[in-house]
Specification:
Number of strands: 9
Oligomer: single chain
Helix content: 25-40%
Strand content: 25-35%
CATH topology: Aminopeptidase
CATH class: Alpha Beta
Number of helices: 5
Largest sheet: 7 strands, mixed
Structural class: alpha+beta
Low-confidence stretches: 174-184
Order of helices and strands: EHEHEEEHEHEEEH
Mean pLDDT: 88
Length: about 180
């Protein structure tokens, strides 16, 4: 059965939060390559926080295999662009190109539905492999960074000075593309 994509609704909130927590904060013996279990303690998100994302300026895309949600990504308006976050793939399905597929879907959705001309993401500073993944997709570090968002209810850092780094991509801007590809 081929995977299917659909827009999430509020009734998916519990399944989405379970997927995101499995991908980001699983027990170490069940961790895929995207986990943060060694960096941040506690849940990444709860169903109530997912429900709060449902509004006219925000969309969650889901990928299903059969009736099971195996990946998700959140896209929200952040004019002149869109912010893409909460990319999660079930650890048992990682390393199959699903994350890359979901990012492409999120980017297309942001441009087609929100008129985004700039795509923004954020990554924890200690996640070198994840930074490299996004850079391969054409994202460039903006130089902006923030301390870990303790008040957001997304876990407690276990390492000192954990920061959130910001990256961006402007798909329609040739000058940005030259920068993203190393000046070529």
């Amino acid at each position: 059965m081929p995977p299917k994509v659909r827009i999430a609704c509020e009734s998916d909130s519990q399944e989405i939060s379970a997927l995101v927590n499995r991908a980001y904060r699983p027990p170490l013996h069940k961790a895929g390559w995207t986990h943060e279990s060694n960096l941040v303690a506690g849940e990444r998100i709860c169903a109530e926080q997912v429900r709060a994302l449902f509004n006219e300026q925000s969309t969650i895309l889901l990928l299903f295999v059969g009736s099971e949600i195996v990946a998700c990504v959140h896209v929200k308006v952040d004019m002149p662009g869109a912010y893409i976050g909460m990319l999660a793939t079930d650890p048992s399905m990682q390393n199959q190109g699903i994350g890359k597929q979901m990012m492409h879907l999120a980017e297309a959705y942001a441009m087609e539905n929100y008129g985004a001309t700039l795509l923004k993401i954020s990554v924890l500073s200690s996640r070198a492999e994840l930074l490299a993944f996004y850079e391969r997709l054409g994202y460039v570090r903006t130089g902006e960074e923030e301390g870990y968002p303790l008040s957001a209810g997304v876990g407690q850092p276990m390492i000192p000075d954990l920061k959130v780094l910001f990256l961006a991509k402007a798909p329609a801007n040739p000058a940005f593309q030259r920068t993203a590809s190393g000046g070529r």
